[in-house]
Amino acid sequence: MKVPESHPRYLSLITRDRLVDGWKKGLVATQGLIAHGRGEAFDYLLGETTTKEAEAAELVASYMLVTAKKPVISVNGNVGALVPDGIAALSDLLSCPVEVNIFHRTEDRVRRLAQHLEDHGCRKVLGEHPDSRLEGLDHARALCTRQGILNSDVVLVPLEDGDRCQALRSAGKKVITIDLNPLSRTARTANVTIVNNLTRSVPNLIEGCRVAMEALSMGRLTLDDVEKEIASFSNEVNLMRVLGAMIGRYASENMSFE
């Protein structure tokens, strides 16, 4: 079915189609389709737009990524299906690897995801041959590589599992996540949580990193400035503001539930 751009749910329907296509190609787990629906419900509460709280988190996340010594982008099936070009662009900008990491792991699915990312421009994709494990996890998401996640200092983990987010923090990593649910374990555990739709946030991060790198190289921004911005950011406070924005949006519109 071809969805007309005039359809009021065009972007939502296109996103769903991409996930279903990813499922048919063996990239997305069936459970990933359910997870997307849960996230989309929270996006309704946000008004399906990038809030000022998301912008604040994206700015700090950009600063963390461009000043990291060994950043890594962790990718699961949904991320690979929805924003492969964006992941490739961000990876190229940061000169960092992408590592496939999935809960419902099969070697065939990992291989398909890695090939899919390479087909969309990712130059260094890890994860097919894990040689390490994250402590504290008893499932497949513990598997990782020394070249990537194990020796990283900052990890971008969109659509993350809460227990793995905690394991990454316990391993001394700084964790940036993109999660539409501000109440999730992941959101509350990460150093920086971007409460935004993945398809909106990744382009924002690309632009944020590009601007930050240019400003640093031109001297318009110093490392001290960046470190102060990062240190002043409170993930807990920002999440509370996001919840307030969700509630306030409906109160301000005088919506009736009778």
Entry keywords:
57% helix, alpha/beta, 258 residues, Rossmann fold, two-stranded antiparallel ribbon, 12 helices, 8 strands, six-stranded parallel beta sheet
What does this structure look like?
By secondary structure, the protein is of the alpha/beta class. It has twelve helices and eight strands. The strands form two sheets. A six-stranded parallel sheet has the order 3-2-1-6-7-8, sandwiched between helices. Helix 1 packs antiparallel against helix 2 (30-46) and helix 5 (84-94) runs parallel beside helix 10 (198-218). The mean pLDDT is 91.
Class of secondary structure makeup: alpha/beta
Globular, elongated, flat, extended or rod-shaped: what is the shape?
A: globular
- CATH top level class name: Alpha Beta
CATH-scheme architecture: 3-Layer(aba) Sandwich
Strand arrangement, major sheet: 3-2-1-6-7-8
CATH 4th-level superfamily:
Phosphopantoate/pantothenate synthetase
Instruction: Report how far the terminal alpha carbons are from each other.
Output: 36 Å
Q: How many strand segments?
A: 8
